[in-house]
Specification:
By secondary structure, the protein is an alpha/beta fold. The chain contains 8 helices and 11 strands. Helix 2 packs across helix 3.
Length: 287
């Protein structure tokens, strides 16, 4: 199991924004949604070695070898040219890593962190790897004190959650829109599966945080505040994090969307509190 591999976009050894406390965050490559507001749009797809990025790199940090795109990290200047022109919404900098390789990174940081968070992309698109990684952490006397959490969009069926939850301490889940048609417009998929995931996780005490992203003029939370608040209330005392959209780093039409202000967030918070949803977490910053 420890030889199972995943496509890894990035590892951040110390993060304080990806779950409780200081955490190592593992970003996996690939996503099953296509959110217009995604701040990591190059993590959506998988590199298919088309090679279009190679001649475009201004620092010659990419090459083709045996029809495979090779990234030369020693000369890469992190200019992101390859990310912005990739037709697959992928990155040539993603690495194939085994569970054992990731464990080596975790061991280096283990004395300074409280847990690990697997994010993405969408972590559950590489579910067997996540299960193998968490199982290895739980079985290791030097690492088993670490909490294992997933940052997810919720697009996973009940069978998948049943496999993951025995080794997962909690899931932080994004709820992008109430109306399914609206969700389709924002992400390319409806949200029926996501609503089922939220209820399934909350019932089992594994929904660590529900996240609502405030995007002025683009989300429908206020239009459906009554059913939204009733839905959240039935989850119990689950923390609800209100995040503020900012256009920095997004691609396409979302670059022209307005940034969320403290007033935008407070408007939603006020309406939720009126209806008994008061376990709210406000954004740490606004841009």
């Amino acid at each position: 199991m420890n030889s199972r591999c995943a496509s890894v976009s990035k590892i951040i050894p110390f993060s304080c924004v990806d779950g409780p406390g200081s955490r190592l965050t593992l970003f996996l490559q690939g996503c099953n949604l296509r959110c217009k507001n995604c701040h990591n749009p190059w993590t959506m797809g998988r590199c298919n070695d088309c090679g279009e990025c190679v001649p475009q790199c201004p620092h010659q940090a990419l090459s083709l070898n045996m029809s495979k795109v090779v990234w030369h990290s020693d000369i890469c200047q992190q200019c992101d040219t390859c990310l912005q022109m990739c037709p697959q919404q992928a990155t040539p900098m993603a690495q194939t890593m085994s569970v054992n390789e990731v464990l080596r990174h975790i061991r280096k940081a283990s004395l300074f962190i409280e847990g690990i968070t697997v994010s993405g992309g969408e972590a559950t698109t590489q579910l067997p790897f996540v299960i193998a990684l968490f199982s290895a952490i739980k079985a290791d006397p030097q690492l088993q004190h670490l909490t294992c959490m997933v940052d997810s969009n919720g697009w996973l069926g009940e069978t998948g959650w049943q496999k993951l939850l025995p080794v997962c301490d909690g899931v932080m889940l994004d709820f992008k829109a109430w109306d399914s048609a609206y969700h389709m417009q924002l992400t390319g998929r409806d949200n029926a599966t996501i609503k089922r995931s939220i209820l399934f996780l909350a019932k089992r005490g594994k929904l660590a945080e529900l996240r609502l992203l405030v995007i002025p003029g683009q989300v429908d939370y206020l239009h459906h505040i009554e059913p939204l608040a009733a839905f959240i209330t039935q989850l119990g005392r689950v923390p609800v994090r209100l995040n503020a959209f900012h256009a920095h780093g997004v691609y396409g039409e979302a670059k022209a969307w307005a940034n969320a202000t403290p007033e935008d967030v407070e408007q939603l918070a006020k309406e939720l509190r009126k209806r008994g949803v008061d376990n709210l977490i406000y954004p740490a910053l606004y841009l």
